[in-house]
Specification:
By secondary structure, the protein is mainly alpha-helical. It contains three helices and no strands. The chain has a domain of about 80 residues. Helix 2 runs antiparallel to helix 3.
Length: about 140
Amino acid sequence: MKIQFSIMFYVGLIFILSFLFLSQNYLPANATQGEDSPVSNKTVTLTNPIGSTDIPTLIGYIIKAVMGIVGSLALVMVIYGGFVWMTAAGNAEKVTQGKNILIWAIIGLVVIFSAYIIVANIISVTTTGELIDTQTSS
């Protein structure tokens, strides 16, 4: 049963990847250049999707993306820990396992947010010379 599932999984994966690869609209090397042809002597301009090319800004974007992914993983772990705890059905080992997952996921969230605040302040100091203002004015 397990072998059959893995074979079906890999066959399906190969089928999907080959379909995605082969369904692309590739242009032959000897295509003619006409008015309606996608190959022409037109100038192509690309805009910068990031909007900035300086190194601190790019590093900041990368750090924000990584922090978002890690934060999402920590949230998934909190949900998983709650699920394990709720489905323990009185089993003391499962309750302890669920509690431990929740505790470590929350500790991970605290570490992630602390690291984000520290890195954001370091980047702010190196670029503007000032710390991030966390106080709200009323």
